[in-house]
Each structure stands twice: as C-alpha cells, then as structure tokens.
Write a structure and sequence with these properties.
320 residues, alpha/beta, Rossmann fold, eight-stranded mixed β-sheet, four-stranded antiparallel β-sheet, 34% helix, binds adenosine-5'-triphosphate, AAA+_ATPase, Peptide ABC transporter, nucleotide-binding
Length: 320
C-alpha cells in the first residue's frame, strides 16, 4: 500500500455568475506517493497542481474521487481528526512566505499553533530546544530569528522558518507547493537539498508542486505532468525526462531556456480560450498539439503503461 493514493480525483469549479461555465480544474486524476518518495507535480499555470494539493490537504472538497492516506479516506475525516491526526502526518509549505506570517507578530508566534495542536504537554525549555533544533537544521541561527518581525527577515529566511515549522512535526508527507519559486537560485538549491536530506533522514514523502521542470528533475524520484486538469504523462523521473512521449511533455522540455541560446522575438501567443478547452471530450491538449488526429478531439486517451513505471495518455501510443 502506498502512503497516499489518489483515485479518480475530480474538482469542478463554476466560474462567473451570469453565463458561468464549469472549470474541471482536476479531472479524473489518479496517482500514488510511496513512503519516502519524492514526487513532482509539474505543469504550466492553471494545470490544476495547486488544486490537487488543496484537495489532499482537505482545504477544499473534491467533486468526486477518493484520497486515501495510509488506506484511510481523507474526505471522511472530521474537523477534529484533521486537526489532531491528519495535519500531524501531512504538512504543507506554500509559495509566498510573506503571506504566511502575521506582520504584527514576532516570528516566534508562528510556532504557537504547532505546539498547541501537536505538543500540548511540552514545557517552555523543551519547546525552545525543539524550535532551535529545527531552525538550526534549516540553516538558520536561532538568535538571529527570535524576537524578529517578518519584515526584518528576508523571503529566504522566512521560507526556511516555515519549512522548519513543518518539519518540526516530522510529517509523513510534506506538500511543497512552489515552496522555492520566490527564492534566489542559491537559496533555492539549499532548500531543495534540505528537503532531500530530510527525506533521507526521516523517510518523509514529498509532493513537490512546481511549474519549473529543472527543479522537479533535481529533486524527484517520480514526475507527474499535468495539463488542464489531466495527467498526460507520469513515471520515473529519469524516464519522463529522458524519454518524454507526450507531445506536451516534449514541448515543455523544449521550452526550458538554454544557456547557449539567446532570446529572439517570435510574436506573442494569443491568450488561450479556457471555455473551449474544458468542453473538449477528447485530449485537452489536442487544440495545441501538432500531431493531433480526429480521435484526439473525440475520445479522452487513457493513461497506459508504455514501459515499466512510465505512463502516457496519448492516442499516438494507443491510449484509446
Ligand atoms: N476557487 C476557485 N474558483 C474557480 N476557479 C478556480 C478556483 N481555484 C482554481 N480555479 C481554476 O482552476 C484551474 C486550476 O487552478 P490551479 O490553481 O490548481 O492551477 P495551478 O496549476 O496550480 O496554477 P498556478 O501554477 O498558476 O498556481 C484554473 O483555471 C483556475 O482558474
């Protein structure tokens, strides 16, 4: 049994009040995260990555489908079970560290809820020791953090504090949603290394949500490529990156800026029409796909295992 099993997960939002249309932000998505596995969820803006993370965290409810954590249905947990049990096992770090702190409170207050919820019996000395240990582990000097307000620290420092807080709980699963996107390149690598180190030490599983292919490749064992709410390709990271099969994955990989290539103006792509995309019965990528055939617009291709631990949803690979 995997630590996390996501089965046929679907989330439909209604957009706009008058003449509103439905957005199938997550559409029949299934995947697993094993114990100690780092899985990247990759896709461009609007592909549904954050919605998947929010559904797993039970911040929103699915329209249909199941989320099993250690075999237990997450959608059926009560608020009390979520607070007391689930969030002890599943923690998250989001993109914008500034948004996660109250600007009027000293940084130290950020740890209050963790201690109230998960370590209510810990005394002040032990609490200080735990916090200082966690801060040191993420490369911070505790004396430079205590008593400070958020505006007195950099984005990188704040993000490290949030990671320290999440890891203090020693969760079984960490959802890192664009957790390093706002950081400069060297801090970013430090934090990625920290996450990898934490996985090695505590066997923590990580769902690493990113639009950045290079970061996903660097950190993850498995990769899931999403396009407009659907999984188009997934499997061992090495296989997905070195033998990409779906035309969308190939296009994404070809779009990664190369240090040897200079910018050249090629015109501005017109904005994509959301409404049309969600009404396509077949592959959502068909309108953009240079290889699309008639069947691609009509029938949704199923994910097929094309080699061991490598799945692709594309009619070019018999995905009908
Ligand atoms: N609460 C909501 N109400 C209506 N539509 C929503 C809501 N949340 C997300 N969506 C829509 O669902 C789709 C998927 O959004 P989501 O934030 O999951 O994508 P994403 O891949 O995480 O993108 P980004 O990288 O830009 O955060 C988008 O079209 C978005 O506009």
């Amino acid at each position: 049994m995997s630590l996390l099993e996501v089965e046929h997960l679907t989330k439909v939002f209604t957009s706009g009040l008058i003449g509103g249309f439905e957005i199938r932000a997550v559409d029949d998505v299934s995947f697993t995260v094993g114990k100690g596995e780092i899985v990247s969820l990759v896709g461009e803006s609007g592909s549904g990555k954050t919605t998947v993370g929010k559904l797993i965290l039970r911040l929103i409810k699915p329209t249909s489908g199941r989320i099993l954590f250690e075999g237990r249905e997450v959608t059926e947990l009560s608020k009390k079970q979520l607070r007391r049990e689930y969030y002890k096992d599943v923690q998250a770090v989001f993109q914008d560290p500034f948004a996660s702190f109250n600007p009027l409170h000293e940084i130290d207050r950020a740890f209050d809820l963790v201690f109230r919820s998960f370590f209510p019996d810990v005394g002040q000395d032990e609490r200080d020791e735990m916090i200082n240990g966690a801060l040191t582990q993420v490369g911070l000097n505790p004396s430079e953090v205590h008593g400070k307000f958020p505006h007195q620290l950099s984005g990188g420092q704040l993000q490290r504090i949030l990671i320290a807080r999440a890891l203090l709980v020693k969760p079984k699963l960490l959802i890192a949603d664009e957790a390093v996107s706002m950081l400069d390149a060297s801090t970013r690598i430090d934090i990625l290394n920290l996450l990898g180190d934490f996985r090695d030490r505590y066997d923590t599983s990580i769902l690493f949500v990113t639009h950045d292919l290079a970061l996903g490749y660097y950190i993850s064992d498995s990769t899931i490529i999403m396009y407009r709410g659907t999984i188009v390709e997934m499997g061992d990271t090495e296989k997905v990156f070195h033998n990409p099969l779906h035309p969308y994955t190939r296009m994404l990989l070809e779009s990664v800026p190369d240090l040897n290539v200079k910018w050249e103006f090629k015109g501005i792509e017109p904005e994509k029409e959301e409404r049309g995309i969600y009404e396509i019965a077949g592959c959502r990528y068909a309108p953009r796909c240079p290889k699309a055939k008639d069947v691609c617009f009509k029938i949704r291709p199923e994910l097929r295992e094309v080699e061991k631990n490598h799945w692709v949803a594309c009619h070019l690979y018999g995905g009908g």
